[in-house]
Amino acid sequence: xxxxxxxxxxxxxxxxxxxxxxxxxxxxxxxxxxxxxxxxxxxxxxxxxxxxxxxxxxxxxxxxxxxxxxxxxxxxxxxxxxxxxxxxxxxxxxxxxxxxxxxxxxxxxxxxxxxxxxxxxxxxxxxxxxxxxxxxxxxxxxxxxxxxxxxxxxxxxxxxxxxxxxxxxxxxxxxxxxxxxxxxxxxxxxxxxxxxxxxxxxxxxxxxxxxxxxxxxxxxxxxxxxxxxxxxxxxxxxxxxxxxxxxxxxxxxxxxxxxxxxxxxxxxxxxxxxxxxxxxxxxxxxxxxxxxxxxxxxxxxxxxxxxxxxxxxxxxxxxxxxxxxxxxxxxxxxxxxxxxxxxxxxxxxxxxxxxxxxxxxxxxxxxxxxxxxxxxxxxxxxxxxxxxxxxxxxxxxxxxxxxxxxxxxxxxxxxxxxxxxxxxxxxxxxxxxxxxxxxxxxxxxxxxxxxxxxxxxxxxxxxxxxxxxxxxxxxxxxx
Amino acid sequence: xxxxxxxxxxxxxxxxxxxxxxxxxxxxxxxxxxxxxxxxxxxxxxxxxxxxxxxxxxxxxxxxxxxxxxxxxxxxxxxxxxxxxxxxxxxxxxxxxxxxxxxxxxxxxxxxxxxxxxxxxxxxxxxxxxxxxxxxxxxxxxxxxxxxxxxxxxxxxxxxxxxxxxxxxxxxxxxxxxxxxxx
Lengths: 479, 183
What we know:
Chain A is an all-alpha fold. Chain A has a single domain, classed as Formate dehydrogenase/DMSO reductase fold. Chain A has helices at 30-42, 50-76, 91-115, 122-145, 172-205, 209-219, 226-259, 271-297, 306-336, 340-351, 355-367, 375-378, 381-408, 423-446, 452-462. The longest helix of chain A is centred in the middle third of the chain and has 34 residues, at 172-205. Chain A is globular. The two termini of chain A are 14 Å apart. Chain B is 44% helix and 13% strand. Chain B has helices at 5-9, 21-33, 50-53, 61-87, 104-126, 163-171, and strands spanning 11-18, 39-42, 150-155, 177-182. Chain B contains six helices and four strands; from the N terminus they run H-E-H-E-H-H-H-E-H-E. Chain B is α+β, with helices and mostly antiparallel strands.
């Protein structure tokens, strides 16, 4: 049986993807899997792949769009954006909803799949939790930038102030403040607490003094005590149990921002489940988009295997179908309601001034992802990567259609108006994409991007007696 | 308080190193059966049943989370009620001041926020972390406790502890190595 350790070339052992049946390549021991994942962080800077530097540079350049866009916005005001009356919610809200949604797959992978005991989540949960955190950070910026007076966001919070004013707890916009800030906090602690045992591993593996110091501080003196693990696992399980309804509530509350209003196309009860499914859909697409380059750069194909890619493809297909059902229901209800405004709303989406966006959205979100029915597509990295990009674009278009078309043409033709994004809308949007990618690209290099202790647990469950010395397990052929 | 062995000899305990988790689990069960109570096991990943084997009985994390979750729910709801009924009553289209269904989303978020924070803070506090120094790190091979080795430490504070006897006891459990843990 060929083993990945047979090679004598120590610098670059060939990495073999074990295919769609295995969640980890055979031949790993506790020590080798630790070395492999920690090795990505401890790699000397000279051996960091060139693509990593190029991507970091490009993302950093894109991030300057946010700097420029935000500075100009703070100087001039929200008039630099394309928002007008009646379309007062432009890119800022489109991007807010899109980014928050992307975060949702991370929580789904780490919390819901934890509760469902899906062991394939292990190799990708840390990575997608980081994605959640960074995506929610981007999302959180938009409502603040959109405030008009962005230096006063704390007015959203209920705090005793000299004006004796309190926010209105009956408004979904205030629900949003609580939902998003809770989501960010819980995502952060979930991610960090998952990291602690691995930070302790990093502390024990570090060679340089400053690395020992940094990982030692972050690892908090974790020593792997059985009693600590018992409390840790209980806390982790409870966090998973809390994060599961939380993630559903967050996009539900985001959808309430729309559904509680009376606008045709917004005032509908299907919004909460449809938003949550769309969120998970776009989130899985983003996980795939990010995982494909990351596993290639750091040769992690034997830990993030084709099985993970296949599972994510299936989940994209599943959530995509729910989203498709949502579209059908929107169309059906607008006809079945008998309400002329609702009927007009749907016709306007499909044939009105934003029809190109609408039909691209149908193409990206419904038609192209049907290719995921084929195992060949799910198990081909380039194909899956392309579909994931298409879905990312499609979900962004969906947010655009929802936010813009309903505002642009409401009940009275006299109050209609068109929305055209300006260069500053694009600058801020592209800037947050850059910021997100910068954070992600740095993360995969400076912290263990795969949960090492959970992979050890998987190894333990697969084969209880695999611990042994050194990097080489008993070779299949004598040497 | 009576003087323990640890106070007299400056040892924290004796630690045995095992190659795989099953051996460690077996050793922990035998140590418990032999009457040792103050001991702990150190592993690179959670092992089912190990905490119970070293005498861990009461896991307080869940009750703490329940308590703080309820505090979050009651606190969140009360805040909203107080704002809209007492502090800043505001007539919105003739709806009652105490329009409680509208408070549910924030009440829920406050519940989750406090429960989640208490899960993490409670777990760390019960584990007495962060802890910058601990005697077990004095064992030379202990850095492998976070990689691929499994350790059992019988602590000197145990009433049954005796350096030579405990050492001999651990040596018959088929460990790779037995080491004294300096304080």
